[in-house]
Specification:
By secondary structure, the protein is mainly beta. It has 2 helices and 10 strands; from the N terminus they run αβββββββαβββ. The protein has one domain: Porin (Beta Barrel), CATH 2.40.160.20.
Length: 210
């Protein structure tokens, strides 16, 4: 009798997980958190001086739309992340430093993997994809020495990867996520490209629509 009861409970959990997945095929995920640059923008030499450029962290917000595939561990996602109040800083100009406002917008399409069947409230996931990343710099705020090494904007191809966890509350789930946009950044006065890791650490809500 105990074995039968366990089997019935397990089946109920499987059906519940499958029904939840099929009932929420389209989901909207607003997020907010922090943006952190994992590497410098690059370094150039002007005469005997080496000028290093960095992108500082700040507030990050994002939004994604996900399409689930019933009875499959995979889904599709399109979304963006936006760093609203970052700054670029330069050091090495006659021993001094300079900074100016910067913004970063990244958009990507991803494949999302979630293990099935879902038997617990907490559900981890992985994502991987690609998109574009655009930097906008307030170059006019920089001094003349640093101004020459930046373009006002730059758009690059980016790879995107991340991991997260959902805590289910029915049609809504709490979400925590870390993702990295990997691109190759080129300073205006330098022909070399440097790998750039821009990381967003966010929390948000996953809202099921259909």
């Amino acid at each position: 009798m105990r074995t039968v009861t366990k089997a019935v409970l397990a089946a109920a959990l499987l059906v519940s997980g499958a029904a939840d997945a099929s009932a929420q095929r389209i989901q909207v995920v607003p997020r907010a958190g922090v943006f952190v640059s994992g590497s410098s923008l690059g370094e150039v030499r002007e005469g005997t001086e080496a000028i290093k450029a960095d992108l500082e962290g700040g507030l990050g917000v994002g939004l994604a739309v996900e399409l689930g595939m019933p009875f499959s561990p995979f889904g599709l996602r399109a979304g963006f992340d936006y760093a609203t109040d970052s700054k670029i800083s330069t050091t090495g100009i006659s021993g001094g430093s300079d900074e100016a406002g910067a913004k970063l917008l990244a958009v990507a399409g991803d494949l999302v993997f979630r293990p099935l069947p879902r038997l617990v409230v907490v559900q981890p996931y992985l994502l991987a994809g690609a998109g574009l990343k655009r930097y906008d710099f307030e170059v006019s705020e920089l001094g003349s020495g640093a101004r020459d090494i930046f373009s006002e904007s730059q758009t690059d191809f980016a790879l995107h990867a991340g991991a997260g966890v959902d805590v289910s509350l029915g049609a809504i789930a709490l979400r925590a996520e870390v993702s990295d946009y990997v691109s190759w950044f080129e300073l205006a006065s330098d022909g070399d490209k440097k790998m750039q890791n821009d990381v967003f650490v966010t929390v948000g809500l996953r809202i099921g629509l259909f």
